[in-house]
Amino acid sequence: MWMKHKEFVELVQNSWQSQRTSVVEKIRKLNGILKNWNKDKFGNIFHNKRRLLAMINGIQNCLSKRPSQYLSTLEETLVKEYQDILEQEEIFWQQKSRNYIGELKSEAVSYFFKLFEEKHIVDMYSQLPLLFPKLNEMDLDCLSSTVSEQDIKHSLFNIGGIKAPELDGFPAIFFQKFLNSC
Predict the structure, then answer these.
(1) Source organism's superkingdom (predicted)?
(2) Tens-digit pLDDT profile for residues 62-82
(3) Total domains, the chain
(4) Alpha-carbon separation of residue 30 from 15, 18, 172 (angstroms)
(5) What distance in Å separates the CA atoms of residue 46 and residue 57, rounded to the nearest whole number?
């Protein structure tokens, strides 16, 4: 939602260029800036949606009684704003559903963790190696090799745009767009 706003890119770049700290600290500070900016620029999407619908309805009622070029132009403008609000709402619900799915995943992990606690699997550890194929030396070396910056960029740019790989809550598309700025 924010990424589509005309001021967002400039806000992020100004925030990051004004700081001479680590990327983690820049993200932490940017998070606070963006929370305030969100309140100022977007406010409550649902309140804005109701307000726009009421205004459009009022204009359409007036237009049904007598034509007016001014009201027709205003209606077009408000309908465009309303479409933007609908797009913001769709993104909002997509992000909310991802959070909900994350909570469900946490509950599932917790359930299975409790299910397979040590007291339940006294003899299972001895059978564990039989469940997995043996890795050869080359595969083991690959798994223990250092991760390059190129590997990170490759992974970051191949992940879905609205996935949030870290706890900071920023989706991958944010880093895809601003990686070179930090």
Answers:
(1) Eukaryota
(2) 999 999 999 999 999 999 999
(3) 1
(4) 7, 11, 16
(5) 16
